[in-house]
Design a protein that fits this description.
six-stranded mixed beta sheet, 33% helix, disordered C terminus, globular, alpha/beta, four-stranded antiparallel beta sheet, single chain
Length: 306
């Protein structure tokens, strides 16, 4: 049984705006699923319906096989959620905030205290335990909200831009925790614009625009939307003449065939030897590349999403 199944979902607002247009997706247990798209694409509307906060115009949403359109309270009891908006429990200390959510999630006092302490340590928040939420920085408040979202039994977790305002070190800790949650069997629906960091934890993703899913699949499966070739990002001290096997993609980005990797590597070694090379990256197209190609319509033609 899928953890989350959305079928033929439509949401039209009273002003006539069609926010979700016959949208369907399925999330399995242990899957980290990314939801990508520009502002106004329909992501927030979808999330609010999954959480039971907004009733769809038509369609079906099931969480663990339970119809949450008919029983939205089940969604609110069963889904852990980190909203994009800041929290209002400003007078609470960080540890009180996390502990209070743990108790609301059904943990007894001892278990709630243990879990709170564990998360404070693992997310490097212990030094802020006695800091009031109102006095904490935006990034620390965000991390406290993430801790509160996962402090209970977390089987379905919805994260809306979880790394907003978070410093690089704690962003790494957050992504590590999301990856661990997925490996432990939790299902994660992740709304994010931080594609470069999210790429390593996402199993599948959907690109949504104007309420419809444009593409859906694993990052590996959708790389062919961009190209089957390797991608070289180059930083040099001054403009250089590219190797003949390189095809300029724009800026300091080039494409080349995998069979030419040895030739490109030798050329890079020569640039490093004469001091021209500052940095480089060779790899397949990134999640940013896939998103840009699909969103702008410049990607290669594939079979449409059913």
């Amino acid at each position: 049984m899928p953890t989350l199944e959305v079928r033929a979902l439509n949401k039209r607002y009273r002003n006539g705006t069609l926010a979700n247009d016959n949208l369907s997706l399925t999330l399995e247990a242990g899957e980290v699923y990314g939801l990508l798209g520009p502002n106004g694409a329909g992501k927030t509307t979808l999330v609010r319906q999954v959480l039971g906060l907004l009733r769809p115009t038509s369609g079906c949403i099931e969480v663990n096989g339970h119809d949450v359109v008919a029983d939205p309270g089940y969604a609110r009891r069963s889904i852990s959620f980190l909203p994009q908006a800041q929290f209002t429990m400003d007078s609470l200390h960080l540890d009180e905030f996390i502990l209070g959510i743990a108790r609301l999630r059904g943990l007894d006092r001892a278990a709630a205290a243990r879990r709170t302490e564990n998360l404070l340590e693992r997310l490097e928040l212990a030094e802020f335990r006695q800091t009031q939420m109102m006095a904490a920085s935006g990034g620390i408040r965000r991390m406290a909200g993430f801790a509160a979202a996962i402090v209970g039994d977390c089987r379905l977790l919805v994260l809306d831009e979880p790394t907003n305002d978070v410093d690089p070190r704690r962003r790494q800790l957050l992504w590590d925790m999301i990856d661990e949650l997925g490996r432990d069997g939790a299902t994660v629906l992740l709304v994010t614009h931080n594609l470069a960091e999210a790429e390593r934890v996402i199993d599948r993703f959907a690109i949504i625009d104007q309420g419809r899913i444009l593409r859906e699949g694993s990052p590996a499966a959708l790389r062919s939307v961009v190209t089957d070739r390797l991608r070289l990002e180059l930083t040099t001290t001054a403009p250089v003449d590219p190797h003949p096997v390189l095809e300029a993609e724009g800026g300091d980005v080039y494409l080349f065939d995998e069979d030419d990797l040895a030739a490109v590597s030798e050329w890079l070694a020569l640039l490093r030897g004469d001091g021209s090379l500052v940095d480089f990256r060779i790899g397949p197209p990134t999640l940013d590349d896939i998103y840009a190609a699909v969103a702008t319509g410049r990607g290669r033609t594939l079979e449409p999403v059913a």
